[in-house]
Amino acid sequence: MIVLASASPRRKELLALLTQDFVVEPSNADESCDLKEATELVRFLAHKKAADVFVGRQGDVVIGADTVVEAPDGEIFGKPNDLDDARRMLGALSGNTHRVHTGVCVMAGDKILKDVSSTQVCFAPLSDAELGRYLKQENVMDKAGAYAIQGSAARFVKSVSGCFFNVVGLPVSMVYEMLGSLHVL
Question: Are 168 and 153 within 8 A, CB to CB?
Fold first, then answer.
């Protein structure tokens, strides 16, 4: 059985593009750590989440994932703490190109596969009025970088270089290759 170690409805929808034969068991792993480099951080947290769920499911294939936004100045944005934090994050992304990193860990038997997908996203400049309207319209509190590219933030996106689905929360083609290498799909 494939187990998605995530409560994210977006990850569930994306994994369903590959298979309907999976269950969701959100990880309760402590996500605190001292890593400051974005790709190291998401790789570490994806592994931590997968390992947390894998403990009770050794006969299964467990997928863990973690996504962050790396601002142009290198600051790592996870989910905002509050609306002021969301406004700050979006202000930093406004008119700039940033990177979205998703770490994926697949655990099966004695195999542990880990990889990171990185995508560049260029935002148009956002006025204070646009930011205010967006924050009233969209629930940003559960989204890294305070935006969902597949939601109403799409209007701010000038270009995407790399995997679009990575920005949504799960790099589908990378996960497909990882599962294929384990002969799961």
Answer: no
32-64 pLDDT, tens digit per residue, is 999 999 999 999 999 999 999 999 787 899 999
CA atoms within 13 Å, Cβ hemisphere of 120: 7
| pTM for this entry | 0.95
Q: DSSP of 117-175, one letter per residue? A: EEEEEEEPP--HHHHHHHHHHS--TTSGGG--TTTGGGGGEEEEES-HHHHHT--HHHH
**Contact by Cβ (8 Å): 2, 22:** yes
Contact 100, 167 (CB under 8 A): yes
66, 82, 115, 142: which one is catalytic? 66
Residue 100: which of 130, 80, 64, 71 has the closest Cα? 71
| Token reading at 68 | 């962050």
DSSP 8-state code for residue 74: S
Is residue 145 within 8 Å of 89, Cβ to Cβ? Answer: yes
For residue 128, indicate whether it is catalytic: no
Euclidean distance between CA atoms 82 and 63, whole angstroms: 29
- Tens of pLDDT, residue by residue over 3-20, are 999 999 999 999 999 999
